[in-house]
Amino acid sequence: MSERLNVTKTYKLFIGGAFPRSESGRSLKVAAADGRVAAHLCRASRKDLRDAVEAARAAQEKWAAATAYLRAQVLYRLGEMMEGKKRELREAIDLGHGAEATGHRGIEAEVERAIDRVVHFAGWADKYPQALGCANPVAGPYHNFTVPEPVGVVGVVCPDGAPLLGLVSLVAPAVCAGNACVVLASERRPVAACVLAEAIATSDMPGGVVNILTGLREELVPHLASHRGIDAIHAAGVSDEHRRTLELGAAENLKRVRALRPEPDWFDDAACESPWWVEPFVEFKTVWHPSGT
Q1: Is the pLDDT assigned to residue 101 strictly greater than 50?
Q2: What ranges in 25-149 are assigned the alpha helix state H?
């Protein structure tokens, strides 16, 4: 009997709801703990990033126009899909030496907490306007309301520590508010993001709302920072040099930059599940309306 052939998987990019290869044809190797090549990843280029921004821009307006209830249901459905991929998500984190990043909490705890966090922000989708907006007291025969609206397209740079939970914690607050995201996955531990992309593709999330790129920060962060189609940046675990690059790039279109330094404890619900995680990715519109005399 012939020996069984093991086919090494190549994880592709996730852009516009599809899984294209990098236009450059480049790839990266993922090594297992024993040194063998366990998988290949596409190495995203500047062109791939532009394609992801265009997909996000095309999807964002319709996503923002969807009812808050629908966005909540879609995020909840994503949690269900992640529940069905628990084993793959655990293996993906372990393949990227996730035990080192996750510490004593363990890989199982990271996967469980990531699913819970998606469901948590699904619950905020129709509640954050009440928490962040208000009815303002004014002098005169008027009603005055302040309401939050999504900023548009958010660029996300994910940390190497807790590669799945960190990604979810950065993306879910922006998406629940009606934004679309272009995500640069963890450079050292990217496989969990690729498995998450498969869960997103089989959920009800419209194509282009979340786009996931794998590649090198040194190559992609400057383009993420300066791209005029990106309206805000959400980053964690970046170096001081990359943080400065993101902040300087904001001058191109006055994009908001939230670079978390130091990294928060991703397992701390009190620190990572506040509606104030949504606030940097909304703009506030104040409306005046005459009241009856």
Answers
A1: no
A2: 46-65, 68-84, 86-95, 98-102, 107-124, 128-132
